[in-house]
């Protein structure tokens, strides 16, 4: 019998051979759970550690974990895990905060530039047999464009740097960042919304950021402006955004994440100015490998009595 037992609560990767290989070095067996919530928790009850992606681990689930010392999430956000309940049970919770920074930043910039240059609308002109720019005016030069970045963590900073490199004027809002070279800090988000041609979101999902972009906030944006969200779906009230696009409150929006996933495609059908991708901004083969390696290494460290690199529920 192996010394440790590790359970993957929800398998989303093509393979878990990376995890299996690393864990075998500490005499740990890996089991991938499946089925409904009760079936997953039945597998997890006697596990020494969990590897987690989307499976909700709330206080009730935590009460059923009799041996668990660490829950290692593969991604960045940890809003599906009750951090207080874990702390109360001395369970370490970790994430991988730096595994897909380059990928998400690139995706956000690609979406932003696509909307500002009106590329989807240009494609639509061709699709209906048209030609020319009559239906695509106006388009600003990037050097005359203001981009608002909401959230200046790792990804937001990279987005600001990349867009600044294209010549855009970059303004930013983050209550926890006092100064950032190349970014004009704006203390009030409503002020940023009112002055920006494009707004890109890079916030964690917290009670105070859930529904951040609702009908009232969207109405504060200029009618020619566009919104990009590659961060967390519930930051945006999707129905409010779709209504704003249909009514011309703002010109465009690009979404890689949604309030409920997978998103019901019928909600997005025939919405003017909408560019959408299926939660893919995080992805590259290198990023996936990094996530699997780093999440597994957190388990190895904690089970060996070492501090985790990325604990999110300390204190």
Could you characterize the architecture of this molecule?
With about 325 residues, this protein is α/β, with parallel strands linked by helices. The chain has two domains: about 5-100 and about 285-305, Rossmann fold (3-Layer(aba) Sandwich); about 100-275, Rossmann fold, CATH 3.40.50.720. It has eleven helices and twelve strands. The chain has a seven-stranded parallel beta sheet with strand order 8-7-6-9-10-11-12, with helices on both faces. A five-stranded parallel beta sheet has the order 2-1-3-4-5.
For the structure shown, list the relevant keywords:
15% strand, 11 helices, 315 residues, alpha/beta, Rossmann fold, single chain, 33% helix, 5-stranded parallel sheet
The helix/strand order is EHEHEHEHEHHEHEEHEHEHEEH
Q: Please, what is the oligomeric state?
A: single chain
The number of helical elements comes to: 11
Q: How many extended strands?
A: 12
- CATH class category of the largest domain: Alpha Beta
Q: What's the gyration radius in Å?
A: 22 Å
Let me know the CATH homologous superfamily of the largest domain: NAD(P)-binding Rossmann-like Domain
Spatial ordering of strands, largest sheet:
8-7-6-9-10-11-12
């Amino acid at each position: 019998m192996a010394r440790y037992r590790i359970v993957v609560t929800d398998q989303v990767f093509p393979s878990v051979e990376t995890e299996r290989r690393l864990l075998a070095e500490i005499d740990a067996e890996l089991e991938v759970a499946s089925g409904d919530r009760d079936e997953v928790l039945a597998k997890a009850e006697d596990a020494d550690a969990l590897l987690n992606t989307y499976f909700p681990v709330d206080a009730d689930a935590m009460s059923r974990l009799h041996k668990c010392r660490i829950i290692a999430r593969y991604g960045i956000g940890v809003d599906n895990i009750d951090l207080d309940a874990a702390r109360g049970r001395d369970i370490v919770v970790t994430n991988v905060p730096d595994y897909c920074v380059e990928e998400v930043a690139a995706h956000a910039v690609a979406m932003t530039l696509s909307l500002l240059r009106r590329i989807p609308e240009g494609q639509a002109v061709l699709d209906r047999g048209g030609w020319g720019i009559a239906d695509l005016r106006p388009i600003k030069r990037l050097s005359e464009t203001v981009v608002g970045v909401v959230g200046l963590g790792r990804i937001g900073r990279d987005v600001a740097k990349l867009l600044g490199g294209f010549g855009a004027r970059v303004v930013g809002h983050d209550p926890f960042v006092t100064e950032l070279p190349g970014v004009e800090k704006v203390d009030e988000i409503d002020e940023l919304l009112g002055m920006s041609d494009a707004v890109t979101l890079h916030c964690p999902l917290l009670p105070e950021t859930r529904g951040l972009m609702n009908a009232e906030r969207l109405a504060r944006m200029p009618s020619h402006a566009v919104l990009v969200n590659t961060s967390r779906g519930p930051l945006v009230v999707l129905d409010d955004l779709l209504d704003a696009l249909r009514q011309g409150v703002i010109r465009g929006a690009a979404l890689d994440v949604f309030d409920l996933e997978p998103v019901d495609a019928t909600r997005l059908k025939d919405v003017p100015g909408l560019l959408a991708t299926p939660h893919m901004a995080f992805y590259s083969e290198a990023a996936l490998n990094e996530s699997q390696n780093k999440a597994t290494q957190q388990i190895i460290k904690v089970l060996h009595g070492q501090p985790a690199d990325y604990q999110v529920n300390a204190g």
